[in-house]
Amino acid sequence: IFWHFLAPPCPRTDCATSAMIGRVQVFSRPLLVCLQSRVPAQVVLGLPSPCSGPSALGFRQLAGRSSGKPPWGEKKDEEAVADESKAEEASTSTSSSSAAAGGSSGSASPSSEASKAQAAIAAAASSPDKAQPGAGGTSAPALFVLPLYRKPAFPGFYQIVQVSEQEVLDFLFALRKAGQGDYLGGFMTKELPTKVAESELEQPSSGGSSSVTSQSLRRDAGRINSVAEIEEVGTVLQVINLTQYPNISGGQVVVMPHKRIRRTKTVSAPSPNVALAAVAVEYLDEPEVDVNDDKVKKLHKEIMAKMQDLLKTSLVYKEQFEQVIRFYDLDHPLKLADLIAGMSLAQREELQAVLTENNLGNRLEKVLAIVEKDLEFARLQSRMKSQAEEKVTKEQRRIMLMAQMNNIMKELGIDKDEKQTLITQFRDAVAEMTLPAEAEKVFEAELTKLATLEPSSSEYNVCRTYLEWITSVPWGIHTEENKDIKRAEGILDEDHYGLEDVKERILEHIAVSFLKGSIQGKIMCLAGPPGVGKTSIGKSIARALDRKFYRFSVGGMHDVSELRGHRRTYVGAMPGKLIQCLKMVGSSNPVILIDEIDKLGRDYRGDPSSAFLEILDPEQNNSFRDHYLDVPVDLSRCLFVCTANVIDHIPGPLLDRMEVIRIAGYVHEEKVAIANQYLIPQTEEMSGIGKESLVMKDEALQKIIGDYAREAGVRQLRKLLEKINRKVALKVVRKKDVEREKTEINLENLASFIGQPPFQSDRLYGSVAPPGVVMGLAWTQMGGATLYIEAIGHGKAGINTAIEFVADKGEDDEDDQAKEEPKRKGGGGGSMKITGQLGEVMSESAAVCLTYSRLFMRELNPDFTYLEDTAIHLNVPEGAVPKDGPSAGVTMATALMSMALHTSIKPDLAMTGELTLSGKVLKVGGIKEKVIAARREGIKTLLLPRQNEADYTELKDYLKTGITAHFCDHYDDVYRLAFDSSLVPQLPFPSRGMSVVTIEAAAVPEVEAPTKQDEGSFSTVVPPTPLPSSPSVSLTGCVV
After folding, report:
1. Which whole-number Å values give the CA distances from 217 to 33, 166, 187, 256, 704, in the listed order?
2. Cβ-based burial of 958 (10 A; exposed 0-12, middle 13-18, buried ≥19)
3. What is the spatial distance between Cα 887 and Cα 789, in angstroms, rounded to a whole number?
4. Which of 107, 845, 887, 904 is catalytic?
5. Which residue of the set 671, 883, 930, 940 is catalytic?
6. Less packed terminus of the chain by CB within 10 Å, N or C?
7. pTM for the complete prediction?
8. Tens-place pLDDT, residues 433-467
9. What single-letter DSSP state applies at residue 739?
10. Residues 189/224, Cβ–Cβ less than 8 Å
């Protein structure tokens, strides 16, 4: 029973140690202790492994000895020595070959590096010139080093070492398999590794997953980078057992420390393939014990007395005493010192000093100091609320108590109180924030209130929710803004083509922030028709500034609480959009895009536009108060970007707080560039066909832009390109078995993909319009547009009766004229009918134009009363489309004059401007949109108000190319420029307004636009003349 309990039967029939084991008396006291405590007998008796097979062979290679006995030597009788000599001779050849081959013969080495290290150890152990004297005159053995992190190992009792690094455990398993891992050198590291110190600060939760368990394991041993990291003095460790954890990496090693050793030199350093270093060691003799030494006796008694008190005070020491101490001879001072040092919780440096000390008296003094500290600590544990001793400061006591409390709660699986945990979380959340004084005061008051409430009360959840919101606001936290102008410009150009006004403004903002050295906030409003990129430019702005981005739409918003939040008294109350934004982005300086601000609602629940007066005011938003939080929140660092289609719908006070940047739309050349650079690659990627399946010809793309997608933006153009890609994708899938072919989109097959073009041209007439018809310019939500105004008269002579002017009149004619004079004076029977679904403003403008036209005709000749006697019908085509605005006055007056004079205006001419009763031409808006519309229709001459000269001058050169613009201050100049002077009577007086300013048309340049075939480069594209016309169906809500 004794033999089979200790170890499995030896596979060798000539086992040299079997006789030695057989001579041990069964009824000896140590053997009975082994049987009772299930401790291997060779550990208690100080014997090596009972087998002299591969395990003993491996130990001889490491220890450099001639037998399988422990390297520090023991007294043996002659028979045992003879038996061991036979085993030595039986394994000499195997030992020599293994040493020469580096441990690779007959065993499985962990790696080639491990084999090299083992060969080096064997060579160092067997080399006579490198041998050093050890205990009993033996040569200097070499051992693999197991670095100990927390405390050194003291001889005398078992020790369980937790190893969390799998490569170290695998190395030990490989050594054991090779018969070379029975004995190791245990040396403590000079410094506690950083990774171990950090893991001690963490507090893992109980009952977690296996990953959490892996992090919570104690780390007693592991790897080192060099031998210099370990102490000089250590202990020989006999490896009793190796255990691998089943579900996580690492395991535990059960060792028995035997004898003190000192490392003399390094045999091999640790490497990626060899986890442990190897060192040459010498064995240290224990100091002699003088039984007559009074000092030793006194120290021995004091230690024993302290030990008895410690056993009565500390439960930990009492438990260990019951398991370990009763097996030891406490009357031996050296064993007593090692036992107390091994059980102590003292500092690692103090324990190492005990291990290193070779003087018995000094060693006992150090052990006495350690046991006294342990006794003090144990008394402190037993009196958790008592006053600390003199040597323990308040901070040390607090640290000890907190560590002890955490360990107790961890062992018992008791979590902290939920309320206390919440309070701690809230305090930790604001620890690194800078709360304003008022917010901090409210926070502390709510936190105190939470501590007094019961979790079951309804007010508890209300208070908890409020604290969660107030701690989620990023108080004083902001992202660092980009100050690289070139990088920001590159990002804006990468995302959008054109839009120079917006890009320039963002670069100016970056420049100001750079010069001031602080993060600035601003309020901008991007106004323009749909599809021009207002929303997407907001994302690009955030990316260019390296800020967080948040978007919310206010179209149709009626409830002001969506902005300011709800009062806390309401059920389900929550903060407004601004606080939600700050919580989501986690920064106090994001880019906030407020979409569709011109479509705000208003009802009994409030007026959101009034709330925006504070939010979008740089002088007020630094202390914005949300109804829910009710503390000031700084929004001054936020960059607000609003989008709108029509700024006329924005209240005046709100519009005054914004910096309006108009985005008029894109002309033909810009659409070609946008399609080639952005839309075509994006639609190909989204449809999955790639570049290899579709070829878009330039003429087909220009046809799409000209006859299919005439809106100011590019949204309709994108839809058409997506439609083409979908049809190509369907074609590819249907022919999946056939080799994929490229589909070419040209003028011939374009209609088969997107149908017939819905538009041709807005020009109802050719280059020259008939008398009474004049082309005007209008602004719509979809951009600029052209429209015709038609006038026709119904006189006594029939329809379209007009005055004919004769240059030379004879006397007979004068007599006839005198006879008709009563009829020509005008009896005031003329009238005017207006059709075309004109608004009130436009109808009033038509009445003003009729009155002024009658006066102007009389100024040309007092006898011209045609407009006064004729029933006039004024019409604006496309009556299904509502039209309104004051800028058609000049056009209406010219149409009436053309009808009355029965003379057409000059070819390719369009005009816009408001007319007064005195003939003054007033300023109008939307000049850029109207110029774009004129270019689409191939207009060569524009008549604009004199006050709009600056607006026209600011336009890009490519928009003004091929157009001659005349800026008129009075209708006299409009009359002279609109009609051919040889066909109409001239004014008998000079112009009554300021002089006309004319900007001549420049030569039509070749506009560069990227093509599909050569992305990244540019090819020359000459726009057609005339350019594609503006949409006739996009006049909804147009302003003429």
Report:
1. 32, 13, 21, 21, 69
2. middle
3. 13
4. 887
5. 930
6. N
7. 0.50
8. 888 889 889 988 988 888 888 878 888 888 988 99
9. P
10. yes
